[in-house]
Amino acid sequence: MHKPSQKISRLVATTAIAATVLAAQAPNVLAVTQPHPDQELNQEAVKKQLHVEGVEQLENGVKLDLSSDQTAFIRLFSEDMAKVSILKEGEEEYFSEAITKKEWGTPSFDVSEEKSEITLTTDEITIKIKKEPFGVKFLDKEGNVINEDYMQNGSGYDGEKPYVYKKTTEDEAFYGFGEQSGLEVNQRGESIGMFNTDAYAYGTDTKYLYTSIPFFIGLKNEKAYGMFFDNTNRSYFEMASESDDYYYFYADDGTLNYYFMYGPEIEDVLDRYTELTGKMDKPAKWTLGLHQSKWEYSAEDIERVAETYREKEIPVDTMHFDIDYMDEYRVFTWSDKFGDEALHQKLDAMNFKKITINDPAVKKDPGYFMYDEGTANDYWAKNPDGSNFVGEVWPGESMFPDFSKEEVREWWASKHDILFDKGIDGLWNDMNEPAVFDGPYHTMPLDVTFGEGENKRTHEEYHNLYGHDEAEATYDAFEMYKPNERPFVLTRDMYAGSQRYAALWTGDNVSEWDHLEMSLPMNMNVGLSGVPFVGNDIGGFAGRPDAEMFARWIEVGAFLPFSRIHYDSDKKAEGKKQAQEPWAFGQEVEDISKKYIEMRYKLMPYLYNAFIDAAEQGTPVQQPLVYQFQDDENTYNVSDQFMFGKEMMLAPIVEEGQTERDVYLPEGETWVDYWTGEEFDGGQTITTEAQLDHLPIYVKKDSMIPTREVQQYTGEKPLENLVLDTYLNEKATYSFYEDDGATLDYKDGEYNVTDLEVKRKGKHIEFKKKEKATGYDTDLESYTLKLNGEEAPKRVRAAKAKYKEVSSVEEVKSTQESFFYDNEEQALYVNVPADEKHKVKIFFNGKKDKAGKSDKKK
Ligand code: MIG
Q1: Mean pLDDT, 10 residues at a time, over the chain (858 residues)?
Q2: What range does the domain containing 725 cover?
């Protein structure tokens, strides 16, 4: 059984201010910053129950008059998604900024009313609404209960606090909740809080981190549903933390509304959730390359590190500019050194992409254009008395833009030419909790206000949206200045839906083993919360890793959706002089780093296609095993393995001194050891050895993985030859998407989709392809079909054309209509011209000796 580890809110009120003020000097000795104490529900109040007093049928659901002058709306948005709202007198149905799709076609449904209950039925779900007391139950079309209210408490308001109690049983697992600490992917048993917090050097039990996504997935009897509590106030999720019979969620304030969406596949839940809150854009390819960063790199450091990457031929795409590039931390300015044209030209000449950090706070500094314009136009967050709120951050006393106002977002976006004019390619938003050094609990007082008139909101309500709206403003800068380029925004703070604008990095993690371990479940849950583009600072941000830790970290880091090495300033590293570039730990670790970074670049076509799935269906890139294998209960609590895209499973070493580990192989697949070719049946745990340079990887049998030659940076060489790394039993397929990876031209149809298929047909193997979309002018000249674990063929031909045998892998890649059999590797390479019209048939001499396959060379 899953052992819950209760998270604790570590900070006592009195130390909060001291901690945050001192944070810049000696943070490691202090408690992690946390918000003010949790508010609990009044247990007596939640026992009072609501009753249905009247029913009215609506076009897409029902309206219910409830006791206590409350009203409920239960609306069907689609056949498998409903929204439940319970409103106090005078309140309206609520949609936060998370919701991008408000208009849904009305699904067909039936309503029936009986004495004790009202029933809504669609083709996918049934909702039964109990009248006395009021309660909601969701069933699938076979009548199985998927989710129901816990009737002892039900749902309603405790004073200002909206709450919902739900029934659960011991076997129900929970995933999602955005960015969460802890070592377990299954969040059952956890006390979760959502209030964006600058939690420098957080730990495995820190309750409040940077991002708030009040969405989760429940999985019971192999069936999944999604639950999205759209409330931007501080919220709490007690996930069977008090009893195995119920869980509940509530918020400090705001309206009671949640969306229920039925799977039964997790995949369908996420597709629906991201239809509601938005999907990420197709990313620019360069953003999927490696990024390198450090707080307090000097201008010279940036140049030297960039040069060293190129000299050592370790692939990398991007250098980040942290806050020191600004003129005394004034946003949208350059200091002389970092703004120097020569530096930018050098980086450009080495084909580096460049990302600058940006903070929201604007230095209070009359004469500084940002301060003057923002003040003249009344753009700042305000104190309750209407005066401008002033708080300390890096530049000293600062103003905080009110990003809830459209005009402020536009103004903010319009300033980015200052960065773009230096050739900046991507933007990085930090400190957008917002963090305030001298504010209570490291943020603004809760009564600071945003917006005006009808749109006026308190910081208490708006807090979790601050980063979301800043990300939107930053994203809009691309539309303004680079209208046909794919935006890249990296943010520390999100609310539900922020995936539309930004990728997420998980803030100031620490160079400690449990942080490496924690990064896996953390990212997997972020991925299950609609945010596929996520990563952690490789090697850890705070503190410094040793050689072993960095080696293990880069092995994972090379496969993160967002892959960036980033580390803290030397001042904060407690005197440790350790740098964190791949070559800073000696030759062995440099070689290991290069090996896995090169592998990322080799897998770029596969990785890019995984991101296409993310953009089209909300599919996570770094997936927990349960995502694809929810019928196998043994996957539910696997927290230290993950699927990298659809076909590859990674089981990294995340503990010190370990050179061996257990690996669970999910049921229903045969798994191939990527390094040795050895095959294993699914549904078992195996033990594997993993010396320092070894990352255990398993590939699904009957899969095809598109790869390419390594590049030093994305776009160095055109993709002329696509290698289809194939593990065949009966049939392997891949739908290969290609476009320019940079512009928005794909929206006008400039993309290709090619369906590839390899099939065993008795004694021969057949390869065929079908062009589904052909709008992109591809560079692709040929495919190299690489068949792993096959014997030498007798002949290869397509219709009448006979493919000729050549004598090396290099030759096969450069000669069309050719093949090569690598005896040692037991792999057959076939070069198929991209314009081959016919099926390619591969004939063998005898019967394939399946038994011999597992003792291949190591
Ligand atoms: O208060 O810009 O999480 O990535 O290097 C620290 C300096 C501010 C926190 C970010 C970190 C960044 C650092 N920032």
Answers
A1: 43 37 42 93 94 97 97 98 97 97 95 97 98 98 97 96 98 98 98 98 97 98 98 98 98 98 98 98 98 98 98 98 98 98 98 98 98 98 98 98 98 98 98 97 98 97 98 98 98 98 98 98 98 98 97 99 97 82 98 99 99 98 98 98 98 98 98 97 98 98 98 98 98 98 98 98 96 98 97 95 96 94 96 96 74 40
A2: 718-843
Q: Tell me: do 126 and 228 sit in the same domain.
A: yes
Tell me, in angstroms, the distance from the centre of ligand 1 to residue 200's CA: 9
- Cα of 281 vs centre of ligand 1, distance in Å, is 26
Residues noted as catalytic: 430, 433, 508
* Domain endpoint, select from 260, 277, 294: 277
How many domains does one find in the chain?
Answer: 3
CATH code, 168: 2.60.40.1760
CA atoms within 13 A on the CB side of 32: 24
Token pair, residue 22, equals 């001192």
- CA nearest neighbour of 165 among 175, 177, 152, 182: 152
Residue 430 Cα to ligand 1 midpoint, Å, equals 7
Q: Is residue 135 domain-resident?
A: yes
Structure tokens at 612: 């296409």
Residue type, 130: K
| 8 A C-beta contact, residue 708 and residue 725 | no
With respect to residue 827, please indicate whether it lies within any of the assigned structural domains: yes
3-state secondary structure of 630: coil
Ligand 1: which atom is nearest the Cα of residue 492? 3
Whether 508 is in the pocket of ligand 1, judged by its Cβ within 6 Å, is yes
- Confidence (pTM): 0.95
**Backbone phi, psi, residue 762, to 5°:** 60, -115
One domain, residues 137 and 248:
yes
430 ligand 1 Cβ < 6 A? yes
Q: Are 787 and 726 in contact (CB under 8 A)?
A: yes
Instruction: Give 242's contacts (C-beta < 8 A, 6+ positions apart).
Output: none
CA 603 to chain CA centroid, Å, is: 19
